[in-house]
Amino acid sequence: MTTYLPARDRADRDDLPPAVPRRAVGAPTADETFARVGAWAAAVAMTWLITQRFLPLDGPAWFLVFLLGTGLITTGLLTAMTSTLVEVRDRMSGVVVTAGALVVAAAIVSAVVFVYLEGWRPLTHWNFFSEDMSGVEPKAPLDQGGILHAMVGSAIQLAIGIAIALPLGIGTAIFMVEVGGRFSRIVRTVVEAMTALPSIVAGLFIYTTVILALGLPRSGFAAGLAIAVMMLPIIARAADVVLRVVPNNLREASLALGASRWRTVWHAVLPTARPGLATAVILGIARGVGETSPVLLTSGAASFLVLNPFEGAMNSLPLFVYTQARSGVPTAIERGFGAAAVLMVLVLALFVVARLIARPRRARPSLPRRLLRLPVDWARAARRLARRRTAPGPAAPAPVAARVPHPASRPAPALEVSP
Amino acid sequence: MNRRPLRLLLAAALAGLLALLGSGGAPAAPLALRVPYTTIEGTGSTWSELIVQKWIADVNANGMKVVYTGGGSSKGRKDFAQSTNDFAISEIPYQGVDENGNADKSDRPYAYLPIVAGGTAFTYQLKIGGELVRNLRLSGETIAKIFTNQITNWNDPAITADNNGRAFPSLAITPVVRSDGSGTTAQFTTWMDDQYPSIWRPYFGHSGLTSYYPRKSGSRMVAQAGSDQVMNTVKGFAGNGTIGYVEYSYPVNASYPVVKVLNKAGYFVEPTQYNTAVALTKAKINPTTLTQELDGVYVNPDPRAYPISSYSYMVIPTSATDARMTTSKRQTLADFVYYSLCAGQTSAGDYGYSPLPLNLVQAGFDQVAKLKKADPGVNLTDRDVRSCNNPTFDGKNLSHNVLADVAPQPAACDKVGAGPCGIATGTNKPSTDDPDAPEDAADPEAPAAGPGEAGDPEAAPEEAAPEAEVDPETGLPAADPGTATADTAGTAVYANPTLVSARAGDQRPFGVLAVVQLLALVVVPGLIIATLRRRPGSNR
Fold first, then answer.
1. What pLDDT is stored for residue A82 in this prediction?
2. Least trusted range by pLDDT, from A53-57, B9-13, B24-28, B356-360
3. Is B249 in Cβ contact with A330 (below 8 Å)?
4. Which of A118, A275, B58, B535 has the smallest C-beta neighbourhood within 10 Å, fewest atoms?
5. ipTM greater than cut 0.95
6. Judged by CB atoms within 8 Å, which residues 124-143 of B form the interface with A?
């Protein structure tokens, strides 16, 4: 079959008039642009009249609510005056969908931005990171005291929590996926039920068992245990999902090569699922680091630095934020917001570190090695550039592409027998 | 275990340092007798948490490590009964059986001692023509009726009468109460049960106090968890018409007004540190149960007394065989309590609390002595009322009542049938005609004026009570106290209510009408054009 192009479009015929620039189908006409922009201009004007002049509705919240309403009306109206009903419907649903997206984005962004707006001032004082609150009264100015004790406490408690929840959680997931059987279904049900466990219950559990029954003092260790209870179902459930998507033929191949079940899990299943498992751990940490209520019950809010998790009361970041923000004293509230900002940065840093660790091993050399190799790479690139300049010709794209590190394009080498 | 001698040595060195510094002016006991301090932990009331944290920060310099974790009075009492803390702070004593039928008692031997006082304040948001009312006055009966849904509108004649004929606009009252178990609720309901049983008991269903405020379905009452949430609701965006009860420090910190409550002497007073402390001079301690008897406080005839004043307890373990307590813990606790009852009370006013008067401090020391009875190793030398650096009395001369000299008399315009005063409330400053009154709450030890010149009537002009502006940083007067700053500010800020309130009612329907007309003006022509275009036969 052959395709015949329309003759008049051919460029080799000079006697034809020049082609009319083809109209872009998707682009709006001037009319449409006017309808769109004009509608919103009218909406802003009307909203201003309604909220600031006619009704006693001060504040940006009411303005935005009315802006959405009037925007919908004017957009629909202007479109109806020029176009068909289909277009009206399309334009109005476009407004609604965009507004919905903006609301969601605003909710997320404002949660972060609000914390930094309220708490940026303590962050400008160095002592906020290098001192604890011992001897600092609640009304003390911001150049006294800090959150060192809370940061250290959080880190210690989290470490205890991970040390307990990580092996237990991944072990549970391996049991559910690799061993299976009747019990695994029960375990899975229990784990899923535990994900919805209110955090206060985890705190109460540790409080009644460890503090009341065993008579241990309120301490960082008890808080770490409570955090472990919180993290365990999250890690187990996420790891379960990840292990289930490991291709079955990997397991079969490993077993066929004569590996035992344990070796299959250790050498085939777990390495394949490594990024996913790291995500599971991240989810667990993210849940554990921000929990206030289990910590409130199990560790006291010490105002001084405590390094021994078995010794006694130990503060942590969420507990510090909680106590400061509820005190009603302006500087204390500001300090609480500052600590919340630090907590967010800490969680972000944890995510980044976990993502770096979670990378498949051979897809990309480690960061220090890459930094060391950087001069070599530059020298090589310079040499290549020089060669290309001296001998112009068809540049070979293949080696260039191979040199550029591209981790995502290479699959995770799960069962590579030889490098 | 070679760390122990080192720690002992360190503690001894600290104690020596302490002795050198001569803390509190008390001559230090021989070093050999003082046991080293150790960390003590307490839990309980969030109402008292702020001042306790302040004391903890103060005693840190003396080498005392105290940990206090708020979480509620009920939790504190429970923790104490379960021996998981060294002391608890609670607004109400053990109840035997709580509202939910659970046991609320302690088998661990204990003693109550008063630790910090304060007034239950009523904060509100009431706007007239966009301006916040800052000088509302209410009698106890009106308050009780508001919180039992008997008075539901701000234009109620009872409220008008309390404000000397000043009428407020027609606006529904939204009482804001605590949803969680709270000592503030307990203090408030104790007062209502004692003073207005005919109003409170039919609402509650039976007599007595409660930590969980009862709510009736169909009322406008809103419940919030925690004093901070109540405060946020009242001062919030949609808070017009709300009134809630919180401790005084919250409205002070939020610079929000509080209600001036009528006392027995016929004056409307604010729960400043002085008014609360004066009221509590009539507090009695039941000799058998060691709990507070506030009947005398509620009807204290002093014109300065704030009726709804109370104090919170510290619960300390008194058994000699207490498993958790050691000599060093008892010593730390005793010294911490000593600091709290004496020098620590100086900062109470600054934090929105009130210093404990002599009778309560005396009672506190009687209880602390039980620590020594339990353990002879505890050293209480010079730990008595005479060496006490409390701002409300002079330890050297106990018959001389410092508080009566220092606490300013209420302004004349605060009396029933006078005023209302144009002075804003919620500023932690007493409303008074007394020019020598200590204005700066941070400095209650300011030289007390002699009784002769204190009540100088010439310094009290009719409306404008001179309120000296004091710079909070320097403590220096920022403006001349003689110039009536409150007068000009009063007329400017407190707009005439009747005029604006009359307009506020009309504004809304006309506003809505204007909005509807505007929308019609825009929409109708557009719709006509759109339908004309669509009509068959039109030149489309």
1. 80
2. B24-28
3. no
4. B535
5. no
6. 130
